[in-house]
Amino acid sequence: MSDIPYRTRIKFCGMTRPGDVRLAGELGVDAVGFVFAKGSPRRLEVPQAHWLKAAMPPVVALVALFMDAEAEHVRYVIEELRPQMLQFHGSEDEAYCRSFGLPYMKAIPMGAGSDPAGMVDRHPAAAAFLFDGHGIGEPGGSGMRFDPARLPGNSRRPAIVAGGIDPDNVYDLIAAAHPWGIDVSSGIESAPGVKDGAKMRRFVEEVRRADCAEGARNED
């Protein structure tokens, strides 16, 4: 049986406007990410996040993103918003990530000096890994790309790829790397946190076009 996914999952991250969240649902994305990391131009406060969540259809998963946050703040966000998954972008260890009782995704920096295989080994309970082009200690959403050939082979969890992905290159990325999922933020924006509806729509179209092409090749 082929290990190529039947379809590529899509996560739109860094949402800041209810209309963008609503359109993401209409386009059929699998998840949206709300950023609570300090210093991010897409950072939300909980009252703002409530407005965004109200625009979500029930079949779209909410992922709450943190970076070296105090545990009390993570628990506060969980209590208020009830996300389906947590996403950690900092130096959080396995015990910290597991302590909140929710599935979690660990972001693996792929920039210079990173040790992606080692980070994967140190988080055996992660539900998925997000491989991003940022460097160690840097937030995601930077738009930095990396060579998908560098993806570590020791992960038995779903691999989600991020970093410098946009409607113009996502087709080729899927054809080359066959990731389980794609996470996009700056690649569908007109400004940090401001999503571009046309880019959002074309991004989804390109992912589905790539999936159809992979399906046709698998049938040959």
Output the keywords.
alpha/beta; 7 helices; 220 residues; TrpF_fam; 8-stranded parallel barrel; TIM Barrel; two-stranded antiparallel ribbon; PRAI_dom; tryptophan biosynthesis
Which SSEs are present, and which pair or pack?
Elements: E1 9-13, H1 18-27, E2 31-35, H2 46-54, E3 61-66, H3 71-81, E4 85-88, H4 94-98, E5 104-109, H5 116-121, E6 128-132, E7 159-161, H6 170-177, E8 181-184, E9 189-191, E10 194-195, H7 197-219
Parallel strand pairs: 1-2, 1-8, 2-3, 3-4, 4-5, 5-6, 6-7, 7-8
Antiparallel strand pairs: 9-10
Helix pairs in contact: 1-7, 6-7
Task: Report what the structure shows.
Helix 1 runs parallel beside helix 7 and helix 6 runs parallel beside helix 7. Strand 3, helix 3 and strand 4 form a beta-alpha-beta unit. The chain has a single domain, classed as Alpha-Beta Barrel (TIM Barrel). The radius of gyration is 16 Å and the shape is globular. It has 220 residues and is of the alpha/beta class. The strands form two sheets. Strands 1-2-3-4-5-6-7-8 form an eight-stranded parallel β-barrel. It contains seven helices and ten strands.
